[in-house]
Amino acid sequence: MRDLLAVTGAGVVVCDVGGLGPGPPDLAAVDLLARLELAARRAGGRIRLRDPGPALRSLLRLVGLGLQVEGEIEEREPALGVEEEVEPGQPAV
């Protein structure tokens, strides 16, 4: 993954997951995608999925792995109630 991102200069690697194999996706597929995403992030990039089936999408949501899907607008994670920055040493409000 690191070499692919470095050689191409791309920031995103598209992974075609439409043909992962017969039967429903399993945790091995999720593990593989998580490892690919981690390697891509460490190299300064991301992965984007092409043609994930409904079962794979559901499984990814279930385990909390929010990967971007080709052709969809990237969803940003909502802020967790952070409203103000506090400098170190300042009392909590």
Describe this protein's structure:
With 93 residues, the chain is α/β, with parallel strands linked by helices. The chain has a domain at 2-7 and 25-69. It is built from three helices and three strands. It has helices at 2-8, 27-42, 54-63, and strands spanning 12-16, 46-50, 68-69. The chain has a three-stranded parallel sheet, covered by helices on one side. Strand 1 (12-16), helix 2 and strand 2 (46-50) form a beta-alpha-beta unit. The radius of gyration is 17 Å and the shape is globular. The N and C termini lie far apart (44 Å).
Instruction: Give the averaged pLDDT, no decimals.
Output: 82
Number of strands: 3
Strand order of the largest sheet: 1-2-3
Proportion of beta-strand residues: 5-15%
Give the structural class. alpha/beta
- The percent of residues in helical segments reads 25-40%
Question: Helix and strand string, N-terminal first?
Answer: HEHEHE
The main pleated sheet reads as: 3 strands, parallel
Rg from alpha-carbon coordinates:
17 Å
Q: How far from one another are the termini? A: 44 Å
Spatial shape = globular
The total count of helices amounts to 3
Indicate the low-confidence ranges by residue numbers: none
